[in-house]
From TrEMBL:
Name of the featured protein: Dipeptidylpeptidase IV N-terminal domain-containing protein
Organism whose genome encodes this protein: Candidatus Komeilibacteria bacterium RIFCSPLOWO2_02_FULL_48_11
SUPFAM superfamilies in the record: DPP6 N-terminal domain-like
Domain of life: Bacteria
Gene3D superfamilies in alphabetical order: TolB, C-terminal domain (2.120.10.30)
Length: 297
């Protein structure tokens, strides 16, 4: 009987912990972005649902299952918008605006129609800036007036659209690569190119739309793809790319001067050899760490 009571107590305790465990570490309470609080831990009591326009957005946290919570005095309320779950919250650079995804109300195919909403933190006014389908992926701020939204468009296909916070399409939808990275100053968009026998990168100026392409064609891209990498300098003045060396089986890291029309200013070869069908390159670190060192030279 005592053993039975002990087992029931353990099960009950586990159930209570599962119900009341809301993800908030102490350091997350001061975080300026909900994305900083992906995995946090503390106890709070669930107290229902609250609309995001009725809470202090700087007190939000996100628990491990993706729901957004407002926690105050040990009480947790699930935060939604217009009765729909929200996700992918990001503050604008000035912290005056907050963007988030939510499912389009009334859609019977839950999750297949998504809306990117932009909320003025001071007035709580909310504007629908973008509507997409289930292929909509991540998004990020360029500045307080412009946003870039990424989406899957097939295989292989990964596109982007640049919009204003008011919903005006400024560029796209179109494709530059299969993955993307904004330069630190948000002036350039880099797309990593990796498809049949073609490997490298394409770079586009966000304002002028001018593009630069750095690709190798007619190569066994499957073997070289795991080494291909790119890295911006912290001041966005240099771009480093790692790709197959022309007329050689080796790799080559190249540093480009952004201000000088992407003129190559430094090159460093990396010896490679094929062992059967595997490509092995003499690289002392990961491609990303290797390029970080090259940028310092």
């Amino acid at each position: 009987m005592r053993r039975h009571f002990f087992c029931v107590a353990i099960v009950a305790a586990a159930f209570v912990a599962a119900v009341f465990l809301i993800a908030v570490r102490p350091e997350c309470e001061q975080a300026l972005s909900c994305a900083d609080c992906s995995y946090c831990e503390a106890l709070a009591i669930y107290q229902g649902i609250q609309d995001i326009t009725n809470v202090s957005v700087f007190d939000l946290a996100r628990e491990t299952y993706g729901n957004v919570w407002h926690i105050e005095d040990g009480l947790a309320r699930k935060v939604t918008y217009a009765g729909e779950e929200i996700s992918y919250l990001l503050f604008s650079p000035s912290k005056k605006l907050l963007g988030f995804y939510h499912n389009k109300p009334g859609d019977e195919r839950a999750g297949k129609d998504v809306v990117l909403e932009i909320m003025d933190i001071e007035t709580k006014a909310v504007t629908a800036a973008y509507e997409g389908d289930y292929k909509t992926s991540s998004w990020e701020w360029i500045d307080d007036g412009r946003i870039i939204v990424y989406y899957n468009c097939g295989s292989p296909c990964y596109g982007f659209t640049i919009i204003s916070t008011g919903g005006e399409t400024l560029d796209g939808p179109r494709m530059l690569g299969l993955s993307y990275a904004l330069s630190p100053d948000k002036q350039w968009l880099l797309g990593s190119v990796d498809w049949a026998q073609t490997l490298g990168a394409a770079v586009m100026n966000i304002k002028t739309k001018k593009e630069y392409k750095f690709v190798q064609t007619g190569i066994p891209s499957r073997q070289y793809a795991r080494y291909a990498a790119s890295a911006w300098s912290a001041d966005s003045k240099k771009l480093a790319l790692l790709n197959k060396q022309s007329a050689s089986q080796n790799l080559e890291a190249t540093v480009y001067d952004v201000a000088d029309d992407f003129k190559a200013t430094y090159r460093q070869a990396v010896a490679c050899e094929f062992i059967e069908e595997d490509l092995l390159c003499d690289m002392p670190a990961s491609p990303e760490l290797f390029l970080a060192g090259v940028l310092e030279k």
